[in-house]
């Protein structure tokens, strides 16, 4: 059925989205959180490294300040002191004095007094400053290990220098970065890069490694801390591990809630309630012909449900859902409301029958009598005969109480009919229990009619039964002239079916009542072969 099917397709999408939502959100949030955490750690590591490099610079400059006391002494005199000072103080590879660009004295054992550029294996930087420092790839004595050189030049072209071994910084960076896989590096004054840790790693899965760069406020030192993508993913995975069980619970919870919400929202009960609010229900009326007065004697109200897109929902479907979801009482009240509006302008004479279908649940409802009486009051001025049609689709419990209510309503001029007689499971017991006025024979029995003179045993028996019980009898679903003639011949006083009239909406019915409704119905069965027999 289209209505329900559409809802179900739609619903699955909703539930899947609800389930995915916490997961997607969690993956995004943990990714952001992991990146943030890594950044904080990077900043901390860079700060620590800078502080260490600054501390080393401090001690290098302190050393140079100490060396100034030897400014005018010959090298031979102070060489030993320089060696001792340079060895006993941490960090230093060598210290010494300068004369112009020549090294005039050095703590380094056995090193010739060459040029500064030879010792540092590169030309000194052109800074124009008396104080400078530079990271270098190595020194003449230890060419393969980086170092940092600090130089103080005095106005008389003498000067002092100190070389700090890069190993200390490399060990420090290694100790800090190893456990987290950081690549750290530092540079003095844009010189050689001193670094530790693994070399460049390939980018993984579109995730770039995170870089952080910091500089010292006191010295020309800059440091880089790079966290490889693999480390980023690792910390993301850790965050996910903590978060995922929670997200899964949320996901399930949200799916259950959504499913529940959908079931409630898209239930027939809610659809029917909404349709009543939006006036999607209308009433169609099928005329009933009386063979006695040879004109229209009444009409049966049949509910119709049209969706805004024009689609009709079949009454047998929505009625049975209304019955099973406890909506049949409100729906029938709605029907009576609509009928009361429609009937106001009907061109009918007093005594016209207006019938409608009642469900067992409504008959057993405490407000049943009240509902019927309210309807009766609303159409009182039309002086119609209200006919209550009881179906046998669902069993009427507490028959005695219902029978009392029906007798009460009969005392107010209403009629009681059994609808679809013969198809239910308790037709005959209904005859005993309820105060009936007439009986509507189900169209199944009418369909069994084969010829005007041929017997139709079950139908004939039902008709006889009605006569014996002094009940009016109505034939339902009369579609042919033969069926009409047959029933009229056997004293069936009321006829309903396509042969006489189809159900019509209010406007068409009113026009019909003023025209065809006043005409007798002829049984033009002369064309049918059965009638060529005399009789
Ligand atoms: O014409 P039609 O297809 O409407 O009828 C289909 C079924 O729906 C019939 O069995 C009829 O009794 C039932 N039906 C139609 N309208 C109503 C109604 O207002 N109330 C109840 N209880 N049944 C109805
Ligand atoms: O169950 P109840 O008798 O209330 O419902 C009447 C149903 O029978 C409605 O669905 C109505 O449209 C249908 N109906 C009325 N007349 C005919 C008819 O002549 N032939 C058929 N097949 N259905 C009919
Ligand atoms: Mn009916």
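-> sequence recovered:
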């Amino acid at each position: 059925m289209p209505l329900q099917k559409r809802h179900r397709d739609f619903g699955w999408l909703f539930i899947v989205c609800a389930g995915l939502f916490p997961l997607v959100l969690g993956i995004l949030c943990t990714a952001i959180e992991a990146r943030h955490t890594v950044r904080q750690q990077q900043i901390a590591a860079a700060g620590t490294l800078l502080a260490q490099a600054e501390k080393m610079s401090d001690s290098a400059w302190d050393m140079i300040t100490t060396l100034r006391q030897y400014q005018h002494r010959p090298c031979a005199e102070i060489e030993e002191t320089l060696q001792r000072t340079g060895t006993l103080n941490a960090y230093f590879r060598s210290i010494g004095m300068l004369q112009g660009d020549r090294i005039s004295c050095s703590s380094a054992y056995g090193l010739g007094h060459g040029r500064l550029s030879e010792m540092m294996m590169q030309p000194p930087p052109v800074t124009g400053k008396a104080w400078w420092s530079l990271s270098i790839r190595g020194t003449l004595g230890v060419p393969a290990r980086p170092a940092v050189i600090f130089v103080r030049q005095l106005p008389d072209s003498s000067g002092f220098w100190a070389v700090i071994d890069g190993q200390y910084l490399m060990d420090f960076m290694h100790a800090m970065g190893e456990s987290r896989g950081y690549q750290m590096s530092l540079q003095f004054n844009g010189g050689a890069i001193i670094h530790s840790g693994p070399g460049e790693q390939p980018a993984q899965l579109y995730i770039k490694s995170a870089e952080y760069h910091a500089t010292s406020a006191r010295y020309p030192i800059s440091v880089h801390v790079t966290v490889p993508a693999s480390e980023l993913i690792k910390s993301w995975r850790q965050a996910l591990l903590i978060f995922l069980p929670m997200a899964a619970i949320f996901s399930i919870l949200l799916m259950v809630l959504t499913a529940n919400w959908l079931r409630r929202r898209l239930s027939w009960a809610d659809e029917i309630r909404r349709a009543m609010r939006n006036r999607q229900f209308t009433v169609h009326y099928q005329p009933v012909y009386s063979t006695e007065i040879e004109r229209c004697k009444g009409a049966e109200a049949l509910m119709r449900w049209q969706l805004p897109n024009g689609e009709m929902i079949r009454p047998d479907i929505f009625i049975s859902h209304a019955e099973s979801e406890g909506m049949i009482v409100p729906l029938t009240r709605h029907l009576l409301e609509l009928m009361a509006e429609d009937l106001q302008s009907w061109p009918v004479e007093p005594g016209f029958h207006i019938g409608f279908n009642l469900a067992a649940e409504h008959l057993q409802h405490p407000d049943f009598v009240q509902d019927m009486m309210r309807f009766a009051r609303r159409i009182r001025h039309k002086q119609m005969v209200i006919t209550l049609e009881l179906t046998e689709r669902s069993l009427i419990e507490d028959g005695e109480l219902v029978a009392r209510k029906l007798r009460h309503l009969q005392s107010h001029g209403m009629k009681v009919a059994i609808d679809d007689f013969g198809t239910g499971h308790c037709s005959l017991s209904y005859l005993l229990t309820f105060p009936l006025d007439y009986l509507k024979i189900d169209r199944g029995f009418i369909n069994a009619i084969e010829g005007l003179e041929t017997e139709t045993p079950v139908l004939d028996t039902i008709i006889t039964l009605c006569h014996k019980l002094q009940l009016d009898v109505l034939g339902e679903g009369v579609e042919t002239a033969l069926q009409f003639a047959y029933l009229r011949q056997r004293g069936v006083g009321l006829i309903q079916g396509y042969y006489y009239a189809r159900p019509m909406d209010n406007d068409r019915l009113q026009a019909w009542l003023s025209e065809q409704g006043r005409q007798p119905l002829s049984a033009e069965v002369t064309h049918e072969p059965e009638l060529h027999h005399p009789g």
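The chain has two domains: 1-275, 279-516.
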